[in-house]
Every structure is written in C-alpha cells, then in structure tokens.
Specification:
Layout: H1 21-31, E1 37-38, H2 53-61, H3 76-88, E2 99-102, H4 104-116, E3 122-127, H5 131-139, E4 143-148, H6 159-164, E5 170-176, H7 188-201, E6 204-208, E7 232-238, E8 251-257, H8 263-275, H9 281-284, H10 287-292, H11 297-300, H12 306-320, E9 324-326, E10 334-339, H13 349-360, E11 362-363, E12 365-366, E13 377-381, H14 386-411
Parallel strand pairs: 1-11, 3-4, 3-5, 5-6, 6-7
Antiparallel strand pairs: 2-8, 7-8, 9-10, 10-13, 12-13
Length: 412
Amino acid sequence: MTEAYRPSTALQGVRYEIRGKLAGRALELERQGYEIISLNIGNPGVFGFRTPETMRLAMIENLNQSEAYCHQKGVFPAREAVVMQQQDRGISDVSADHVFIGNGVSELIDLSLRALLDPGDEVLVPSPDYPLWTAGVTLNQGCAVHYPCPRENGYEPDLEALARLVTEKTRAIVIINPNNPTGAVYSLSTLQSIVDIAEQNRLIILSDEIYDQMTYDDASFIPVASLVRDTLCATYSGLSKIYRACGYRVGWVVFTGDREHAQPYLDGLDLLASLRLCSNVPGQWAVQTALGGFQSVETLLTPGGRLYESRQAVLDAVAASPYLSLVPPSGSMYAFLNVDQVLLPQFDDRQFALDLLETQHVLVAPGTSFNVAYTDSFRITLLPDPATLTDVFRRIDEVFTVYAAEQKEKIQ
C-alpha cells in the first residue's frame, strides 16, 4: 500500500458489519437481478411503513424557515418539544438549553464521546451492543469495556460483573433500553442498580432510548433519567424508529441530573456542535408535531398491529423449529435468535449469514457483529409483514437442513 493512502490507525478495531461486507455482497446480488430480503437493519421505510402525514406537512409548511443555519443546538420548537416530553415523564428541571438536536442519534453519540474522552479512558458498553457505541468509543481514543448481558438473564445486565469492571479510568456507562439487538426491556431494579453504580463512581450515564415507546405485551419502559440525581445523564432519542422517519436524520440528546459539575463538558459539546454549524433543519420542524401529536406507533404494537403480528410470526416460527431458540423480544424491532449447536455443532454465524444470502437471498446480521464472543446467534428485524417472515424462516430451515445432512455425512 502506498504510504500516502494508508487509512487512519484509528479505524483499527472499528466494526460496523451491519452495513459491511455482507451488505455489499447483497447489493452485488441485487445488481445481478436477485430480490434480496434485507433483515440486517431496522429501516422502516423499506418495508412500507410511512412517516405520519402530520410530520411531513409540518416539515413542508416550514421549508421557508429552513434555508438558513439554525442555532447549533437546534430550532427552539423542536428542543422545547423534547423538554415537554421529559417533563411528562416526571423529569423536571430541564430546559431547551439542555437539549442538542443532531443528524440522528448517531452523530450525537460521536459528539458526546468526542467531548468526553481522552486517550485510554474507558466506557462500559453492553454486550451484545449496538456496535456504533463501541465504534464511537474507539474512534474517539477510548477503550470500550463490555459488560455482559447474559442470555440466561433475559439479556439484562449482569450487575455484579458490571460493578467489577469499573476502574479509575472509567468515565461513563452506556445503557441501551429497549435494547438493540436483543429486544430486552430493563426492569426498574436493573436500572436503579446501574444508576447506583454510576452515582457511586461519578460516571456519566449515556442512555440510548431510541426505541422508548416500542414495547410489547406487559413490558414497561422506564426512562433512566427519572432515576438519576447525583450524576450527569444523557438521554438519546429521535424520529427514526418510533416515528418511522429514518431519512429525516433527526435525533436529540437531553442532559439531566448533575449538570452543575458537568458544565465544562457541556460547554465542550456545545463547541463541537458549533463546529458542525447545525443539523438538518427541515426535519427538525417535524419534532414538535411528532412528540405532541397522536402516537400512532401504539397501533402497531398491540394485537392486530403490524409489528405485533410480525413479532408473533417470528415466535411461532422459532417454536416450530428444532434448531432455533429465542428470548422473546419485549421491545424494539429486532429478534436475536440462537442456534442449537448440539444439533448443528459446526454452526458459525458468519458462514451461516453468507450461505443464507448466497442460496436463499436473505440478509441477516451475524451475532458477533454485536460484540459478543459466542458464534451461535444472528439478528433479524421484525419490520417485514408476517407472511414474509414466515417465508424467511422456511428459507432458513432449508439452510439448516443442508447443514444437518452434511453433519450426518461426517458422522457416517
């Protein structure tokens, strides 16, 4: 490689395989004329979900106010709408000054970590995780330390293991609730224990709550900010998932808790927000309407609703499969599936994902994409309609049947 063109060493160890080589191969197959069912990413618009019309109209009606840069933190009505939502959730002492609007939560994760970390600083990140968190820590010179969220614990954190991982270099704890990729929705006792660990060690809580209203059956979402008093809490959410507006690229982070002692950090984040001038202005005008209007996502999550019935189709397919098991997702739009390695002892999640793509034209995300050590899992999105998901599991079963036959030949 010519030295002048070598990539930054900061990219070493950075992974985002959800849009990696498998997705690249899927694109090649599509160009060859194959129809690919892409279950690797939660992208509602691809599966027929529409952004509520009131949000589109709000954006269109304010286009004449969208041609100039706005304040680096975002337009006031959008930030004020986030404040009102926080207050409705019992989180007081927050104003529009404490809200930053970004080009999706993704940008805000990067900015938050960049303002926080020095080389070698540690951030506790769940495993499995949404890999942007690990990548963001790594790109900003930190060290992602993964705390286990065991399958046998319903993918809730192992709190004793989490506490043991805190060192003098630890700066923050990441919470993803409802969880991507597992669909776990954390209990009050789990969240309170994490808050206690953070407050005892003066760690910032970075709470990714992009799926905050997306829960099933009797699962109950609890905003962690409502529990935090003696440390800084950053709560992230946006329009992409609940409001099916991924392409608008609008997310927000709101800071609550001990802001007084965190002011130099918040000033640093304000500086970084200023350097990128502002986030996408047109999409911001949809925030007030989204948060203050009818919450149409609720109709998708109850019996007869699209997401509810798709989730049920996955549960039914797993129950009928001799090879698969699943901790039923209580929230979000994903299922994190496990393969029986007793029946398929040679199973490897990456090879399976490639075989499924090449032979059945279904794209999934291998479990190891989410920073876990085990190789018996993969993630799919629940966004397709139930009939499509039923067909997906038929195709998955065909791959498993081939694997089982090959295993039988080896034994004989």
